[in-house]
Amino acid sequence: RLVPVGLLAGVTLAGAILLLARQQMALPAALKTALRRKEFFLEYQPVVDLRSGRWMGLEALVRWRRQTGEVVMPDLFIPLAEENDLIVRITRQVLDAVCRDTGSYLAAHPEFHVGINVSPADFHSRELLAGLQQRMATIQARPANLILEVTERGLLDPRVARETTRALRRHGFAVAIDDFGTGYSSLSYLESLELDYLKIDRSFIEAIGTGAPTSQVVGHIIGMARDLGLRMMAEGVESQAQADFLCRHGVQFAQGWLFGQPMPFAEILRRLAAAEDEEAVARAG
Ligand code: C2E
Ligand code: MG
Ligand code: MG
Ligand code: MG
Q1: Transmembrane ranges (predicted)?
Q2: Residue 7: CB atoms within 10 Å
């Protein structure tokens, strides 16, 4: 198996045992039922421009609401869906939900972005680009509104990674490498991929200001990503000190609890409207 992180297997196993114990059903079967009943839904986390404090966009994050009302987080079921060849079907429902939720807002705000997480199997299937294009035709949003987020696991094969990335970008979609720093890819390999964004993994953001060895690494990642001309997003920003450090070092975008947790799209809309009102008042005053 190519999954490099031992932890991932642990989470998968723990999640499976947990869910199996609560419901006398094999988990792949439970996921299939969830697909049929459309039990997946999205929350959205704001991504801010660190210089202006304004929202540049959102990241869509999937959750599974079971009939019991319990909400299962993606770290528990996405690895299982990947192992059981169900991920492509989940992604289909995720793309539908993103379009349904955000379509008209994106149509009215061409500069706004929504990040969508895709698994390696999605990234390597022809269905992804075809499915995206088909959906773009039904809403008024533009491909440039969407950022496809793929982890290093999805980029292991250089030839395939290059082809897929190129095809998506040729059609106007943006591509981000997610959780950067947790896998094996070198920055020079990334250069050959022509990506749009590099998302610095939360583990490096956590280390900022701690003096731990990892805290040195974040400076190096930032420096090299800048040299490669990649736009950077920091994940998991929880403190103002972290945000200040990142901004000072030229990282333009960030997401994290400091700015907002994942929330339903209706709540996102309320906050966007409130911010617009505030700006209008400021302009008038
Ligand atoms: P990710 O794409 O790296 O998403 C960021 C994760 O960090 C999210 O967890 C988010 O809630 C969490 N996070 C954001 N800010 C903070 C913070 O300040 N502190 C802390 N401690 N955590 C923060 P979530 O929603 O549980 O998602 C976990 C992972 O599941 C995602 O990591 C992504 O890899 C995967 N995932 C989520 N949605 C999808 C999806 O639709 N499709 C696929 N294939 N994978 C998904
Ligand atoms: Mg992501
Ligand atoms: Mg990430
Ligand atoms: Mg992650």
Answers
A1: 1-21
A2: 10
Looking at per-residue confidence, does 166 or 285 come out higher?
Answer: 166
Query: What would the pLDDT profile of 217-230 be if each residue is shown by its tens digit?
Result: 899 999 989 998 99
Q: Which residues line ligand 1 (CB under 6 A)?
A: 45, 61-62, 73-75, 78, 94, 117-119, 149, 178-179, 202, 235-238, 255-257, 262
| CA pair distance 20, 23, nearest whole angstrom | 5
ipTM passes above 0.90: yes
Look up the pTM and report it.
0.92
To test the pocket of ligand 1, the residue of 7, 88, 117 to mutate (highest count of ligand atoms within 8 Å of its CB) is: 117
The DSSP code sequence of 6-59 is HHHHHHHHHHHHHHHHHSSS-HHHHHHHHHHHT-EEEEEEEEEETTT--EEEEE
Whether pLDDT at 9 is above 60:
no
The residue contributing the CA closest to ligand 1 atom 41 is 62
In contact, 176 and 200? CB cutoff 8 Å: no
**CA 245 – CA 250 distance, rounded (Å):** 9
Atom of ligand 1 nearest to the CA of 61: 38
